[in-house]
């Protein structure tokens, strides 16, 4: 018999700590300021209306729900959460994972539950309106089901292997046959993040087949664009709604209690344009806190945000000038290689560390005396102090896909003059 308690405890502990901070950064050698966002459970979704098959067919009524409420309501028959980059899809899944792990632990291991609850009722969770299955009634999917986060960005071989790896990372080792049996018994709640982040078409086919084979297992999927990766024929779709102006203002005041009003005055009517997703708002707040002014456009928000990492390290952190000199160009090259697959639909948001080091070594060849050593040192520094991180399976990823796309765009911008010249030289 499987002992789920250590796994659920590991999830509760890890994600309760993760939830303290809504941030992309964790710079080695710097004290991290923990700021809690009051907005994480206020995200709203609307049902996506299917296209009418017949003229005059009645339009279904649009539902507007809180994001977690909507996901719980439709998970049994599978639901797809659609939203813009940085709109809070992955954040919503992480929050749901935490709540379902707490609820499953309370249901499956009721003895001494009150003492366990105290360990998660930290100050970090109280403003996030923690939903306890015991204190508020079991308004969850955790009726003995075990939540598992399936991060498709790490796809290499199969969906089953992703499930196995996530369980193993949190202290539970199961082989493939055991996982298949648990799927057959409907023991899992699968939170499948990032259909658009699957690296190749064969992976999408595998995911679609997996969903069809395990149709009775509750599943929640996310994607940023229905045109990228498709919808896996999932009938029920929920769309993340933009933050309201009141939510944006609340967000800014929560992160910048001393400077929030000044930032809002500078933004004026541009608040909606520059800050309609939590990620963009966070970047704006971070830049305003450091510089005291708002960039004039979205492109400069990304550029200044990236450059800020080159300049904000403490003086007592020893980073060679040679390493720091290459950072921006190496990130551009890494993003370019990850985004430029052999096929038009091939895109990687995570690559093995060894491959990343080989990419940087090749780029530095002929530019520095010892390219392999320089690539190794620069990669270490970037992982410790910049906008890439080490993910599951020793794979390197940007801290958000939008950040990767920004560096890729900077790389493409440098190629435009040569591309325009080549185009002009073609015979007419």
Automatic annotation (TrEMBL):
Transmembrane segments: none annotated. Pfam families: NB-ARC (PF00931). InterPro entries: NB-ARC, P-loop_NTPase. Residues 73-246 form the NB-ARC domain. This is NB-ARC domain-containing protein. It comes from Funiculus sociatus GB2-A5. The lineage of its organism: Bacteria, Bacillati, Cyanobacteriota, Cyanophyceae, Coleofasciculales.
């Amino acid at each position: 018999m499987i002992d789920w308690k250590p796994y659920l405890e590991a999830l509760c502990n890890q994600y309760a700590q993760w939830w303290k901070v809504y941030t992309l950064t964790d710079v080695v050698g710097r004290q991290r300021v923990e700021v809690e966002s009051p907005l994480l459970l206020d995200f709203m979704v609307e049902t996506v209306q299917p296209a009418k098959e017949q003229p005059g067919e009645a339009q279904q009524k649009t539902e507007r729900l809180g994001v977690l409420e909507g996901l719980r309501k439709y998970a049994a028959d599978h639901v797809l959460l659609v939203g813009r980059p940085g709109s809070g899809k992955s954040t919503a899944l992480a929050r749901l994972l935490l709540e379902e792990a707490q609820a499953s632990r309370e249901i499956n291991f009721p003895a001494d539950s009150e003492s366990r609850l105290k360990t998660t009722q930290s100050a970090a969770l109280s403003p996030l309106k923690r939903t306890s299955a015991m204190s508020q009634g079991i308004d969850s999917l955790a009726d003995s089901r075990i939540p598992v986060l399936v991060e498709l960005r790490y796809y290499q071989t199969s969906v089953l292997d992703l499930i196995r790896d996530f369980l193993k990372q949190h202290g539970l080792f199961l082989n493939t046959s055991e996982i298949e049996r648990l799927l057959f018994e409907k023991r899992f709640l699968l939170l499948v993040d990032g259909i658009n982040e699957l690296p190749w078409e064969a992976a999408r086919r595998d995911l679609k087949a997996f969903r069809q084979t395990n149709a009775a297992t509750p599943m929640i999927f996310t994607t940023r664009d229905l045109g990228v990766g498709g919808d896996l024929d999932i009938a029920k779709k929920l769309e993340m709604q933009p933050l309201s102006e009141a939510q944006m203002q609340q967000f800014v005041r929560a992160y910048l209690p001393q400077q929030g009003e000044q930032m809002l005055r500078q933004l004026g009517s541009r608040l909606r344009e520059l800050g309609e997703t939590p990620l963009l708002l966070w970047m704006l707040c971070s830049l305003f806190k450091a510089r005291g002014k708002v960039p004039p456009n979205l492109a400069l928000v990304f550029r200044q945000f990236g450059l800020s990492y080159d300049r904000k390290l403490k003086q007592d952190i020893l980073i060679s000038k040679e390493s720091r000199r290459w950072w921006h160009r190496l990130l551009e090259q890494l993003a370019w290689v990850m985004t430029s697959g052999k096929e038009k639909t091939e895109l990687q948001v995570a690559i093995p560390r060894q491959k990343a080091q080989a990419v940087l070594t090749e780029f530095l060849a002929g530019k520095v005396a010892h390219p392999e050593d320089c690539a190794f040192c620069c990669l270490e520094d970037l992982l410790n102090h910049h906008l890439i991180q080490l993910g599951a399976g020793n794979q390197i990823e940007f801290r958000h896909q939008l950040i990767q796309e920004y560096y890729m765009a900077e790389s493409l911008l440098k190629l435009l003059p040569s591309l325009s010249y080549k185009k002009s030289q073609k015979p007419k």
